[in-house]
Amino acid sequence: MLSTIARRRKAAGGSPFSTVKATEKWLEALPADSDYDAHHVLVEGLERFNAENEAASLSRMKSLMKMEEAGLPLQLRIVEQYVRNQASFRLARQALWRESWVFWSLLAEAWLGMLKGAYRGPASAEIKPFAAEIAARALRYAGLVMRWDYHQARDPAGSAWRRVHKIYRLAERDGFATQTVQINARSTHCAREYTLVVLMGLAHPLGYRTQEIETIAQIFEGYEPLSLPAAVPQREVHTHVVDLSLSEGACVLDDDWVQGRRLRYLALRPLIDYLKSLDRSSAAEGDNGLTQQVASLIERGGIRRNRQRTHRFGRVWVAAGMDNILAALAHPDAARSYPALEPWMLRDESTEGMGFALPAASTLPHGRLVAVTWDPSENIWQLLAIRWNREEDGQHLVGAQRLSRHPKRVEIYFEPDGQGGAQDKTWAVFIPMTHLDQGGSNLLIPKTHYRLGAPLMLRDGDMLYRLRLGEVQESHEGWLRVRMDVMGREQFAVAA
Q: What is the top-level taxon of the source organism (predicted)?
């Protein structure tokens, strides 16, 4: 009798997760009148579960599954509130983001600890048969933590990439990478969850709005014929590669087709075509939608900030926005005064772009175009697009991708019998072909002047070109960057 009393007292003052039944009883006591309060208590429970630092066991794994089962519907409703509250309730929005981020982080930590226990703990023999279910969850929640970092315009840390690479290598090594498991009544496996993490890294949604990030994620998760990582490269099939030994995601394949022990290849051309087809089928003609931008990012290999970068410090002059860019690109004789220029401090530079440090936070959405020069009097400009911005050690950092080293302001108009009606002449920006876009030169034009396949006249000095407009590459705040085919050219005097 004394032993029974002692056990009861220990249970009363001990962990609420000591047994599956105790966990169920604890979950039944969650607040029922408020999703946020119930979610908050559950988050505190997960925090306590991890802080107990108990050795992994089958009982603790089942308790964790019970907490996950109760928490995921609550988390879904919290995320829905978070997405809805973006336009207002700034303080509530931040609180909901934090609640969600902590929930994913604690689940990722708990399942990673369970995975370690399946291989090294005293109860590994009874947990090891569930390795596929544990690893798939560890991958999924680690990927969701990285996705929630994107919501705050933060790049996932290198340690986050190392974690998902390591878990996936383990799944491959032990042969359960494609073993089907159920998470929240949805069939998945480790290879699929890992690929979803890699795809979000390629989409690199820094600067996207919350609704857009979640839309991208839902499109990826709903795409059934998802390409899985392959160890053997095929030239006519694979388009991207990921190195499981690095602290970064995937990149586009160039000419490096070397087979390596930790290199995995992905065939993403069907997904890219699918994303482009969504815009063609659902968006109005000439409207460059979200999926087109994501397809373009994946097609060119995402945004890799780990490539060789040269530290360059000094002031540069920046014309931001198309009105200022057009004024900056005008010939000096055509403009007596310079446009509104901003002094930015250059931080580093690579073959693909520039990094800046700004004195104060600025509203620089994804895709905002800027023209940069070292000396406005020389009239030598580079055209860049903003890709990310974040705060680090009290500095406001901005990263921009270089679109052209030699942009040119040109005049465009439709011929009287051409498509598009009788629009007047207007200015555009010609973007000569660079190593970033080997498919051909691009043209920046107003949305009002875009019709797929329409003939267009372009005047550059004394030369007159007849063009045919191709597909939209990206939208830049009312301007479209499009492909073009040159149908012919002649001297302007002759054409006149």
A: Bacteria
Quote the distance between the C-alpha of residue 303 and its chain's center: 9
Are 415 and 388 in a shared domain?
no
195 and 333 housed in the same domain:
no
- Give Cα 45 distance to the centre of its chain: 31
CATH number at residue 369: 2.40.10.220
- Whether 284 contacts 321, CB under 8 Å: no
Q: φ, ψ for residue 10 (rounded to 5)?
A: -65, -40
Give per-residue pLDDT as tens, 346-367.
888 877 788 888 877 676 777 8
Contact 479, 449 (CB under 8 A): no
The model's pLDDT over 145-171, given as tens digits with 9 standing for 90+, comes to: 999 999 887 888 888 999 999 999 999
Q: Which of 177, 201, 225 is the last residue of a domain?
A: 201
**Do both 318 and 352 map to the same domain?**
yes
* Dihedral, CA of residue 308, residue 298, residue 213 and residue 216, to nearest 10: -160
What is the torsional sign of CA 275, 281, 282, 286? Answer: positive
Cβ 412 vs Cβ 445: under 8 Å: yes
Q: Is 207 helix (H, G, I), strand (E, B) or coil?
A: coil
Angle subtended at Cα 82 by Cα 79 and Cα 86, rounded to the nearest 5 degrees: 145
Residue 365 CA to residue 386 CA, distance in Å, equals 7
Residues β-bridged to residue 365: none
- Residue pair 109/53 in contact (Cβ under 8 Å)? The answer is no
Backbone angles phi, psi at 472, to 5 degrees: -75, 135
How open is the CA angle 176-179-183, to the nearest 5 degrees?
115
Question: Within this chain, do residues 341 and 476 fall inside the same structural domain, yes or no?
Answer: no
Amino acid at 478: G
Contact 408, 371 (CB under 8 A): no
